[in-house]
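2024-03-11 09:14:02 INFO worker-7 job=invfold-0412 stage=load source=structure_tokens
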């Protein structure tokens, strides 16, 4: 979960003014059949049109694996053509000069390593476009369109606003609200049972996990260790994370849907199962939830629709996690959110100074780790990166397809992403606020204010992405917004001490519990909130 908390940085991609553009390829024999591919170019070398209106197409000639480092490398006429050659042995500009001398109109340099903006001192006489393209895209072009292809280059304007952000925002706020509300309703049911019977039947109560300050520190330390292990052993641990996600999300989906199914007055017949009786409707619900997880696991790399299943499973996981994991008091919330804020800032802003690639550990793990290497193109030496596990991503994000076409959508991720941690971590505070409302009959004032604060924090995060045009740790804004707001509400209501220490549902040490049993006054005070 924590390893991908900063995938919110991907929302920034369509807002950055980079030197990426689009190669539009058209099959001559079948003009409606087209393909668009990402290319990188140097704006100081070439000026590309922003639209396809009144644009000129050029016949494509694929010469790979030819390197075009001398005129003798070309054995046939390439005049007035766009040529594709392989990267290596000489600079990009040397390839361009040779191509122009032979009459070519455009040079596409296919690269097996990562592509970036081409650099060099271009001579005024060199005026044909020189661009970098992934070799896998050239292979796809040949398979999809064949040999009779014409191409053109253009650079569509960057999107000023990606409306997928609105969808991401709605999903995040909904998860936090539902998880917090469910946690509060569970607390209310427990209080009602306690007041009617005088005790709670632990065998029938739902299981919950309470994070004490000590367990919070252990939890954050585990996150740090796991993130570093993912950085060094991604190729193996990614499959472990996928397996855990399938199991945990299927169980979470079952728990969420079972709460709704139990409200339906049908299918309540039971059958014996392991010395117990299981409802038929819940049995089939379990099969359905497991099937959803299995289908996603099998087709997880299918970009056209698998993201829908991942989002369904992810939303269920976040909501169930917020409902299940209880913070006993505001003190534990401050420790958890504060430590995770430091954790996020360190792994995003500090670790770039510690890694060879200059990238943060958080971003590299989120996008898949890189193995640094050097490529020498004549007198141009540049660092490149090859993804060690290009087809496997950590399934711990909410994914929404980018709404709108841009070069960045082709060159980078076609999805806007938000890590589960940006939902779950503040959501635990929201859940505590609603349970405190229930305990103190506060008319949901803490819950509503914390949800509003979370929404404001998300909006501030989006604004900072746009203004700074740099990856931002979302918790840098979410944590202060939610903690400060909750503190101000408690101060205004003069309940800061009770809010800090927790109410009667707080986990007590055995010594404190024994002392309270012998102290009628303390026991009475503990029941006032009920």
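2024-03-11 09:14:09 INFO worker-7 stage=emit residues=530
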């Amino acid at each position: 979960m924590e390893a991908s908390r900063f995938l919110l940085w991907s929302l920034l991609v369509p807002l950055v003014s980079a030197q990426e553009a689009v190669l539009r390829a058209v099959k001559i024999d079948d003009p409606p059949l087209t393909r668009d591919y990402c290319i990188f170019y140097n704006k100081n070398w070439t000026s590309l049109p922003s639209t396809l209106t009144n644009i000129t197409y050029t016949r494509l000639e694929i010469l790979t694996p030819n390197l075009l480092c001398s005129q003798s490398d070309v054995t046939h006429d390439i005049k007035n053509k766009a040529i594709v050659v392989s990267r290596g042995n000489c600079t990009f500009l040397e390839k361009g000069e040779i191509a122009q001398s032979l009459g070519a109109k455009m040079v596409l340099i296919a690269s097996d390593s990562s592509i970036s903006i081409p650099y060099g001192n271009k001579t005024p006489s060199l005026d044909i476009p020189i661009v970098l393209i992934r070799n896998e895209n050239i292979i796809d072009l040949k398979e999809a369109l064949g040999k009779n292809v014409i191409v053109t280059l253009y650079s569509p304007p960057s999107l000023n606003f990606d409306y997928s952000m609105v969808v991401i925002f709605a999903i995040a706020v909904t998860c936090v609200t539902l998880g917090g509300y469910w946690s509060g309703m569970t607390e209310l049911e427990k209080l009602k049972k306690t007041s009617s019977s005088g005790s709670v039947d632990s065998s029938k109560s739902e299981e919950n996990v309470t994070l004490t300050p000590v367990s919070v520190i252990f939890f954050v330390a585990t996150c740090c260790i796991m993130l570093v292990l993912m950085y060094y052993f991604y190729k193996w641990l990614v499959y472990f994370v996928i397996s855990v996600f399938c199991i945990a999300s299927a169980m979470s989906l079952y728990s969420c849907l079972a709460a709704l199914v139990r409200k339906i007055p049908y299918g309540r017949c039971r059958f014996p199962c392991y010395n117990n009786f299981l409802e038929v409707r819940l049995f089939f619900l379990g099969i359905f939830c497991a099937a959803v997880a299995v289908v996603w696991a099998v087709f997880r790399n299918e970009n056209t629709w698998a993201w829908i299943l991942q989002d369904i499973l992810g939303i269920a996981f976040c909501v169930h996690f917020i409902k299940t994991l209880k913070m006993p008091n505001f003190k534990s919330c401050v420790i958890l959110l504060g430590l995770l804020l430091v954790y996020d800032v360190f792994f995003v802003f500090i670790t770039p100074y510690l890694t060879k690639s200059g990238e943060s550990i958080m971003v590299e793990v989120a996008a898949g780790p890189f193995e640094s290497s050097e490529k020498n193109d004549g007198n141009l030496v540049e660092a490149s990166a090859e993804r060690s596990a290009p087809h496997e991503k950590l399934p711990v994000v909410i994914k929404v397809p980018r709404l709108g076409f841009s070069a960045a959508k082709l060159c980078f991720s076609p999805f806007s992403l938000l890590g589960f941690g940006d939902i779950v971590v503040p959501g635990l505070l929201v859940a505590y606020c609603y349970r405190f409302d229930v305990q103190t009959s506060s008319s949901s004032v803490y819950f509503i204010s914390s949800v509003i604060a979370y929404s404001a924090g998300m909006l501030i995060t989006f604004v900072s992405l746009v203004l700074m045009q740099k990856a931002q740790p979302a918790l840098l804004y979410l944590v202060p917004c939610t903690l400060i707001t909750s503190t101000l509400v408690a101060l205004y209501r003069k309940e800061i001490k009770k809010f800090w220490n927790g109410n009667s549902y707080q986990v007590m040490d055995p010594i404190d519990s024994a002392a309270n049993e012998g102290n009628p006054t303390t026991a009475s005070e503990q029941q006032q909130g009920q």
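2024-03-11 09:14:09 INFO worker-7 stage=report msg="The radius of gyration is 29 Å."
2024-03-11 09:14:10 INFO worker-7 job finished
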